[in-house]
Amino acid sequence: MRFPWLLMLALALGTVACAPTHLSIHVNSPQGTNQGRPLHMVVRAVDSQRYMTEFYADVAERVVHPDDSVVQTLVIYPGEKTQTRVKIPEESPLAISFLFTTPDGAWQVLLDSPIPGRVDIELEESRIRTDAPSKRKKPKGEPKKEEPPKFEPPKVEPPKVEGPKVEAPSAGK
Question: Which of 164, 121, 160, 122 is nearest to 23 (CA)?
Fold first, then answer.
């Protein structure tokens, strides 16, 4: 072979440009999650149309009767952090569903292409936390974000109203 270094360079560039083949899922489940009861997590390869039209009962059935879409099921215990790793399907988004006893809000999330190598999910009592605070630190020199001034409604004294004057009838009439 004339240029073995070219082959090695091509292989090195090919591995850098490739998308991840596995997804690490990190789930934080506080003590009060699901009223303190374990719950199932179901990872499925589904297209966005199926994801949008499936009902909770359809997904729950996949725990007992998995179909070809199920990549993994796992029991999540409240008060514990859970980590798992799944193979990313080549041509399908991944849905990660949490089967709460009484879901109240977001109970599943869809990861579309390109799927990242890691996802962190924070659970609340009966839902997936969707408003996770940003942990970004402000760089030095960046001005503080000022709050808009607070306006209070003007204080208005109620008008003083006197009742009508009524004269007492005279006794001599």
Answer: 121
Per-residue confidence in pLDDT tens, the chain, 173 aa: 444 444 444 444 444 456 688 999 999 999 999 999 999 999 999 999 999 999 999 999 999 999 999 999 999 999 999 999 999 988 889 999 999 999 999 999 999 988 899 999 999 999 998 765 444 444 455 555 555 555 566 666 666 767 677 777 766 55
- The answer to whether residue 97 is domain-embedded is yes
Residue 100, judged by CB atoms within 10 A of its CB (0-12, 13-18, 19+), counts as buried
69 secondary structure, DSSP code: T
Q: What are 44's strand-pairing partners?
A: 70, 95
Are 123 and 76 in contact by the 8 Å Cβ rule? The answer is yes
Answer whether residue 92 is part of any domain: yes
d(CA 155, CA 159): 12
What is the distance in angstroms between the CA of the first residue and the CA of the last residue of the chain? 136
Print burial letters for 164-173: b (CB count within 10 Å at least 16), e (below 16): eeeeeeeeee
> Which two three-digit tokens encode residue 144?
């503080």
Which range marks the domain in which residue 59 is found? Answer: 19-122
